[in-house]
Amino acid sequence: MSEFVVVAHGISIASLRDYLLAKKIDKGDSLILNPADYETILEEIRNSDEGIDIPLNIFGVLLIKDTTDTVPAGKLQIVETDKL
């Protein structure tokens, strides 16, 4: 299982975009988010002028809500395409 990583000082669309660019996460990979962080991203999108596209993705990287209760709040797990 991959490790959990911290993104900036909080998870937001901007911090996820910056992280994806800095770490060169591949299109098609996935980020698994704590349910609370996932809901924060959904709320941020709802309050923006952008529409919500389901499934959620940023730069082709899929955002997935953790359903196993293993990803801590404020962290995410990166899953490479071939490991899903």
Automatic annotation (TrEMBL):
It comes from the Bacteria. This is Uncharacterized protein. It comes from Flavobacterium rivuli WB 3.3-2 = DSM 21788.
